[in-house]
Amino acid sequence: MNPAPDAAGADLAAFEQLRRAEEAAGSLNISEVPRFVGELERVKTALVLRATAREAEPETTPPSKQPTVVEDRMLTAAEVGQKLGRSRWWVYDHAPELPRVLLPGGKFGFSERQLENWLERRKETGLDPRQELLRRRIRRSARRRP
After folding, report:
1. Other CB atoms closer than 10 Å to residue 51's CB: what's the count?
2. Coil, helix or strand for 143?
3. Can you give 4-16 as a three-state secondary structure string?
4. Cα dist from 120 to 31, 113, 124, 125, whole Å
């Protein structure tokens, strides 16, 4: 795999590491393939999050006015459940009501930063996130009943 020739300013070291990972993949034991693919998906998801984040201001902005880059990471359903005091199955069941990131293939993940912002907004309004989710669910089920 070769980096695109027009990838001006791209970090060639990253492309070299990717090439080495591709070579290593060819010599993996078949039992290690799922773990390797999972790690590739984790890296891909981190890049998608980074690419879809708000664009930074141009480099000409003085350092004092440049935005601070906030790290973000994808959380598993179990990690989200731990933050909310619920099980991972509860998180899956309530995923449409939670801040989530849609990923290719119809999958989704949870942005740690978005979840923290969501929890903070609920604290500011005095709503317990768990109570709010329960109220939403009750309203939704009431609308479904004839």
Report:
1. 8
2. helix
3. CCCCCCCCHHHHH
4. 42, 10, 6, 9
- Which token pair is 116? 């923290």
SS3 state at 119: helix
Nearest to 17 by CA among 3, 32, 30, 28: 3
pLDDT attached to residue 57: 43
Q: How far apart are CA 30 and CA 134, in angstroms?
A: 44
Q: Which residues pair with 75 in a beta bridge?
A: 110
Please report the pLDDT score of residue 53 as a whole number.
Answer: 66
CATH of 73-146, one of 1.10.1660, 1.10.8, 3.30.980, 2.60.120: 1.10.1660
The continuous run of DSSP H or E covering 113 comes out as helix 112-124
Which residues touch 18 (CB under 8 Å, ≥6 apart)?
1
Q: What angle do CA 5, 6, 8 make, to 5 degrees?
A: 110
Q: Is the full-model pTM beyond 0.85? A: no
71-123, pLDDT tens digit by residue? 788 888 899 999 888 898 988 888 888 888 887 888 888 888 888 888 888 77
